[in-house]
Structures are given as structure tokens and as C-alpha cells.
Amino acid sequence: MYHLLCVKIILTILFLKICHKNVFSLHPINRTEKLISYTIPEKRGLKKAFGYDEDTYLNFTELTTKYNYPSEEHTVTTEDGYILTIFRILAKCNAPSRHYPVLLMHGVLDSSDGWIIAGSEIGIGFVLARNCYDVWAANHRGNSYSRKHVRFDANIDPEYWDYTFDEHGNYDLPATVDYVLQNTGKAKINFVGHSQGTTNFYVMNSLKPQYNEMINLSIHLAPVAWLKNTESIISIIAAQGSGLIKQFLSDIGIREFLGKNHIIHVAFEALCQLVPDEICGTMLALTVGYVQGTINPKRISVVFGHVLNGVSIKNADHFGQLIRSGKFQRYDEGISGNLKRYGRQHPANYNLSLVTAPVVLVSAKSDWLSSVKDVKILCSKLPNLLENYEIPLAYWSHHNHLWDDNIKEYLFPKMFEYLNKYN
Ligand SMILES: *[C@@H]1O[C@H](CO)[C@@H](O)[C@H](O)[C@H]1NC(C)=O
Ligand SMILES: *[C@@H]1O[C@H](CO)[C@@H](O)[C@H](O)[C@H]1NC(C)=O
Ligand SMILES: *[C@@H]1O[C@H](CO)[C@@H](O)[C@H](O)[C@H]1NC(C)=O
Ligand SMILES: *[C@@H]1O[C@H](CO)[C@@H](O)[C@H](O)[C@H]1NC(C)=O
Predict the structure, then answer these.
(1) In this predicted structure, which of 90-99, 171-180, 290-299 has the lowest mean pLDDT?
(2) Is the CB of 354 within 6 Å of ligand 4?
(3) Taking the model in full, what pTM does it have?
(4) How many Å apart are CA 19 and CA 252, to the nearest integer?
(5) DSSP β-bridge partners for residue 149
(6) Domain tally for the chain?
(7) Distances from the Cα of 184 to the Cα of 88, 135, 298, 418, angstroms
(8) Is 195 among the catalytic positions?
(9) pLDDT tens-digit map of 369-384
(10) Domain extent at residue 27
């Protein structure tokens, strides 16, 4: 049934694309014009009146304040002008922190909030701080905390959105690592990434191998590199048309998809207050194989106030290319674009032999996106793999690593086994 629905959506988009070309070609859209924006201003009073759980709309700083974990807000500017926000949760323990700082990198459509919205008991950011770690939660370009640029306006300039996870790895993550090291005076960091956050890590350490030296240990939850065997139905179907969809959306002036406070996000946020498992649980089930009911529905309501935090259309197309090609390679700009950008006709593969920093992978049987088969390919390429730990529960999927109550038993012991050993 869902397959059929997706096919219909794709056909509709293709149909519109054809109409757009043929029927409206007399008035070609001036591509330098303003972007279309669907952003709805946040109305907290209204949310409060409708009985939303407060954590749904509190931001990072407000959440850490509420749960009594002192935090700081930092900004860093990347080499190519993007201004990013990094949050820091100070170690909450009596002794001074003796560990390397931990840098957290979120996944696609997520932000730093993903590490704390599970609450003070199991939110990974809070748990690390309680265990005496100095926690830094990054935000890549384009999410609601990192929408500024020295020249471009994210709401107006299409150039702002001309990036994929390649730029997250090549610019955002290195700038963030540099900043954390400089600010803390430490020689290395520990890295914990989720989903695309791990992709960013492979990109950084292969394109800028000097960063391997700055990583003491890295833990990768739901790692994403090869997507040859992905079982995510929506991703597979969308991937088939991702180039066309990108072209179509860019023609009508859309460069950002599923942004925070865009119409779709606001609708999900509202519906998921009422029927979290039916609506948002189903959405997660379709995209990543989430088994409904395994994350507390109240938490799902809170999560959907924070996620759907924007992806550039070009980034979505880059993932589509990975699915279609079965390769883990740089963005394919087309032959002339590739010659201009890379000096070669076809994009290069990311060379995982260069990712020499120690890596622990944490994977899961029911994760459709980061499938067990694709994680195996990744394992075979990583030169310094310490372990691929597969969560021993059949239902575990992509987001259970962040928000499932069982992470206390199934993730934290493994995480701290390595963090403690490596410090
Ligand atoms: C498109 O719009 C911009 C700004 O409004 C204008 O400067 C430019 O000349 C237009 N280009 C075309 C091809 O109409
Ligand atoms: C978080 O919310 C507070 C209070 O509304 C606001 O002052 C602050 O600027 C917000 N922080 C960010 C990073 O958006
Ligand atoms: C990580 O840090 C520990 C403690 O300082 C050290 O013994 C170990 O060699 C480091 N490992 C790497 C890969 O830097
Ligand atoms: C990948 O990196 C390794 C290690 O430096 C190197 O030996 C190999 O030639 C590289 N592969 C490609 C395809 O560039």
C-alpha cells in the first residue's frame, strides 16, 4: 500500500515537472529570485494552550537549564562562511573533568537537540555530562541553529543551500573540531555520531586525513556510508527520481526540504501531540524500519517538535546518488560540473583506508536505512575498526539508539566500556 502511495507521489511530481516545462515555459522562473519559504513563526502560547509537552518547544539551552545542566552556546565560522552554533554541556561531577571532550554530531533532519530530548535520565548528552565528560553538541549548516552565513541569507539566497554531507564533513565538522580543541586546550576529542553524523566523520577523515590525529576514539551509532542494500522503502523510491525532483524543486525556488517550522513540520508536531505512534511512529517505520511502540509515545511527541530540522535538496539528492550507484562517493555534478569541481569526469569514492582513527560501530537488525549488509561493507573498509557491536534485540532500529529507554542496558555499557578504556 505504501509503495503505491510513494509511486503516486513520484508520478505526480514528474507530471508537474513535465507540465512546468511545457505549459509554463512561456514564463520561465527567474532562478535568481527569492526562495519560496513556508516558515511559520513559532507560537508558544498557542502550543501551551493546546497542552503540548513543554519539552517539545524548548530549545537546547532551555532544556539544559530546565534539567539543571549548565550549558554554553558557541559559534564558529567555517572556511566557506557558514556560521555554526555549538552547544556545550559542562561536565556535571565533583572532580574536574579529566577526559577528552566528547563531540556529538547529529544525523540528517536532526540537530544538537537529538542528544538531549530523551530527558535527563537517558539523554546521551546528559548522561555523558553526569559521567564527568565535557560535552560539545555540534550543528551542521542549514539546521535551525546554524542558518547564518557571512554573505548569504538562507531564506533568500539559493547559493546558501548548495551543499551536501560532503560539505558537512569537509568544512563543518573540521571547523567544529578545531574550535573545541582550541577552546578546551586538549589535544584530542572523542567523537560520537549518529547516522549522517557518522557519514560526516568518514568524509572529514578521508578528505582531510590530518583530523585522524585529533580523534582519540569514535563511536558511530547507525553508521551510514554505503547504501547499496538499504531497505528503506521511501528512500529507495525517492532515490530513483532524486535528480529530477531536485531539478523540479529548484525550478520553483525550493532548496530546503522539511525545515523546522515549515508547514510539514508544524503539522507533524501538532499531530504527534495527539497520536504520536500512529502518525510519527508510522513515518519512522516507513523510513527506517522503526517498530512502533518501542520508543515511549510521549517521547515521540517531544522528538517531533525538534526533528524535521531541514535538509538541503542537494543533500537528499546526494543520498539518492549513493543508493542508485551503490558507491560511497562524492557528489556527482554531471560531467562538466565534475570537471570543473574535481578536475575529473566522475566523482571519486571516499577513500576509507584514510580513516585511521579508532572506530566502534553500533548497528541494529531492524535498521532499514543503515542495513546490516551495508554496515558489513563499511567494516571491511575501515582500517582501525575496534568492534561492530550489533544491538542484540531484533526490533532495534535507527532511532532506538537515541530515544529508547533500553539504551540504559543495551547501549551505555558498551559506550562507557570504550570511553573509559580510551581515557
Ligand atoms: C532575475 O531577477 C534578478 C533580480 O530580480 C535580476 O537582477 C535579473 O536580471 C533577472 N534575470 C533574468 C534573466 O530575468
Ligand atoms: C533559546 O530560547 C531562549 C529563550 O526564548 C532565547 O533567548 C535563546 O536565544 C534561544 N537560543 C537559541 C540558540 O535559539
Ligand atoms: C587515547 O587516549 C589514551 C589516554 O591518553 C591513550 O593511551 C591512547 O593512546 C589514545 N589513543 C589514541 C588513538 O589517540
Ligand atoms: C586510498 O588511500 C590509501 C592509503 O593512503 C592509498 O594507498 C590508496 O592508493 C588510496 N586509494 C585510492 C583509490 O586513491
Answers:
(1) 90-99
(2) yes
(3) 0.90
(4) 12
(5) 82
(6) 1
(7) 11, 11, 36, 22
(8) yes
(9) 999 999 999 999 999 9
(10) 2-421
